[in-house]
Design a protein that fits this description.
Blueprint lengths: L39 E7 L2 H33 L7 H12 L13 H31 L7 E7 L1
Antiparallel strand pairs: 1-2
Helix pairs in contact: 1-2, 1-3
């Protein structure tokens, strides 16, 4: 099998081999600058990073739990307004769970309609759960966060 000869018109865009310049390499130590200059690698360890990570994890857990309680209460409101079958397993679970997290607001309002009473009682309980979560998160961030003095430690290694 023979290959055709190279066509100079097709390869004109490529520079000749003599014009290729290799990438610039770093000069040897001491060639430019003081000969006793050392290469130092620094690793910074922030003492507050772990504390902030813990605070974020705790506040996320508080937000998740209080949000879950509020969602269950809203689900009970929706199931009551839609007249769901109370003998259904899911509806019974939501009813029991919402009764446990209603913060004693069950029967607080006594309007003429059971649907309106559920809306007011569980709606208020859901709002209170969200406020409780926000207040707990505020207090955690306020009192557990590191103060204004920041300490950063360095570890140096010389090659």
């Amino acid at each position: 099998m023979s290959y055709p000869e190279s066509d100079p018109e097709r390869t004109r865009a490529f520079p000749p081999q003599e014009q290729y310049v290799a990438p610039r390499q770093q000069p040897p130590p001491g060639q430019y600058g003081p000969p006793d200059e050392e290469v130092v690698h620094e690793r910074v360890r922030d003492t507050h990073a772990q504390r902030w990570r813990t605070i974020r994890m705790i506040t996320s857990a508080v937000t998740f739990i209080t949000g879950l309680f509020a969602v269950v209460l809203v689900a009970q409101i929706i199931l009551t307004l839609a007249e769901a079958n109370p003998d259904n397993g899911f509806a019974g679970f939501i009813s029991d769970f919402s009764g446990a997290v209603s913060l004693g607001f069950d029967g607080l309002f006594t309007p003429g309609s059971q649907k309106l009473a559920t809306l007011l009682d569980y709606g208020l309980a859901a709002i209170v759960w969200l406020l409780i979560g926000a207040a707990i998160n505020f207090l955690i961030r306020r009192f557990a966060s590191p103060g204004p003095q920041r300490e950063v430690r360095y570890r140096r290694s010389v090659e």
